[in-house]
Amino acid sequence: MVPRPSSGELWGLHLMPPRIQVDCCLPNGMMVSLECLRETPLLSIKQQLFTEARTYPLSHLLQEESSYIFVGVTQEAEREEFYDETRRLCDLRLFHPILKVIEPLGNREEKILNREIGKIGNPPGNPPGNPPGTPQETPQETPQEPPRKPPRKPPRQPPRNPPGNPPGNPPGNPPGNPPGNPPGNPPGTPQETPQETPQEPPRKPPRKPPRKPPF
């Protein structure tokens, strides 16, 4: 799966750390790790690399520094040869901080010229597979639905009065029965009011006779 291009200086990072460990692969099969500043140009990295490589085995197989160039994998998943050694490490947009030292094949000046022409035709920031002049696709945000309000309950309406029942008479009360009279009680009959049961006064406990002292 081809990784998507990133807008940072290093894959997964918007800004490269001030100091970063760079792994350099030499043509003699040795790998040298260098601690570099993020703004170090490639020419300074190459000089530091070949100074350190003289202390490693098989250093006699290496040629002069000017015979080699750096190559790396960019965030667009492309293998790019870096002919311009004035470029800074943070400007390379590497996928990982790994550089390989190789001998350039073909005409070096012609390759540099072709790369410069390719940069003019394709503006910076445009993916390699996107034709020049084609606008980049930007992810569209999905519109969020506004929170739904709970449905309002209709107000409760009073029960309808049956036809023939005079207004003011409760629905369950027969016509002619005065309001407040129970339905089973004939009209004009006084309502039975519950009588309160008289409560008995509290009984006092019987007094005990005083105890007489023994003779």
Question: What structural keywords apply?
Answer:
215 residues; alpha+beta; 2 helices; 12% helix; disordered N terminus; PI3K_ABD; PI3K-ABD domain-containing protein
Write a short abstract of this structure:
With 215 residues, the protein is α+β, with helices and mostly antiparallel strands.
How would you describe the overall organization of this protein?
InterPro entries: PI3K_ABD. This protein has 215 residues and is of the alpha+beta class. The chain has two helices and five strands. It has a five-stranded mixed sheet with strand order 2-1-5-3-4, covered by helices on one side. A hairpin with a 5-residue loop joins strand 1 and strand 2. The chain is elongated and about 130 Å long. The termini are far apart.
- State the helix count: 2
The low-pLDDT segments are 1-6
User: What is the alpha-carbon Rg in Å?
Assistant: 50 Å
Structural class: alpha+beta
Our estimate of the beta-strand percent is: 5-15%
Biggest sheet details = 5 strands, mixed
What is the straight-line distance between the termini?
Answer: 121 Å
Helical proportion, percent range: 10-25%
Provide the residue-averaged pLDDT: 78
Q: Based on CA inertia axes, which overall geometry fits? A: elongated
Task: Write the H/E string, N to C.
Answer: EEHEEEH
Q: Can you list the strand order of the major beta sheet? A: 2-1-5-3-4
β-strand number = 5
Biased composition (Pro residues): 124-134, 156-189
Family: Belongs to the PI3/PI4-kinase family.
Pfam families: PI3K_p85B (PF02192)
Biased composition (Basic residues): 204-215
